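Handoff note, outgoing to incoming analyst
You'll be picking up this chain. Sequence as last confirmed:
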Amino acid sequence: MSNNIKIENFVISQSNRPFIIAEMSGNHNQSLERALAIVDAAADAGAHAIKLQTYTADTMTVRGAYKIEDSNSLWNGRELYDLYREAYTPWEWHTQIFKKAQERGLIAFSSPFDESAVDFLEKLGAPLYKIASFENTDHTLLRRVAKTGKPIIMSTGVSTIADIFESVQVLKTYGCKDLVLLKCTSTYPASPENTNLLTIPVLQQIFSDCVIGLSDHTMGVGASVGAVTLGARVIEKHFTLKRADGGVDSAFSLEPDELKSLVIESERAFLALGIPEFGVIKAEDKSKKFKRSVYVVEDIKNGDLFTKENLKVIRPGDGLEPRFYDQLLGKKSNRNIAKGTPMSFDLLF
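Most recent structure output, in case you need it:
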């Protein structure tokens, strides 16, 4: 397994800025024109990749299998089959979406939900694959994706550590050499309180040969930026043109200005990590002048004593350091000294 994963013109690694994925999901609202506009908006915001979901309602479930009855769910009262019919991205759109992404410098890829989707995406030349949380224990799918030899990103929602370990072993056994694991809380939206970002460094410790990231279903960008400081190097967020336009995932999706902010702030968080540093760094050299030091604040004649009236600790920092102040009081000057002179030992008898 590799900790440096090259995907087209981007390298995913601990030493590189976060890889930002804009998840289109069903936010196209069954409009190809809107789907292409989402690609443009993601590129304009500075995202590195656009992700689709490749399935049909019939490859996901059957009519009558389940109706959502949860008052806290965004999809309460919806038949699961109908929900997938509304959210799916028509397969005949994929070529145009991939082409638009390429024109805009975005990496386009998808989450396949069954083997037929993998076969289809292979024909499109998908450069990598994403395994969704709800599919991460489907070993048949995992084996098929791993056999492509492409890099894989896998979300870890609704999974035990044993589930994750077993799935990682399946992927490795069947040919996966580049794997990213995303910490994920599979609630929609997720709250900050149940996001548990401190899992990220633990995942990195357990799966040391993988890159770790975050699939973030919270509102806003705070959790994602925080995740970067804990080692996340891939961030996935659902993305839409405007939440008010509606759509199956719109309520917890970022708008263009927010995605732009995520790209900027996550990179700032990464750059700010630096290294453990104590002492004055080179960038602070000029600022040393604005520390306090001991200065003569009244004219002094040769032989006068230094007192609290004629010596003070002020800015700038060109005189003796403040820790010498008490030692200077009561000592005699060896010359006439003008007000505003930085104090030094050679002014003493």
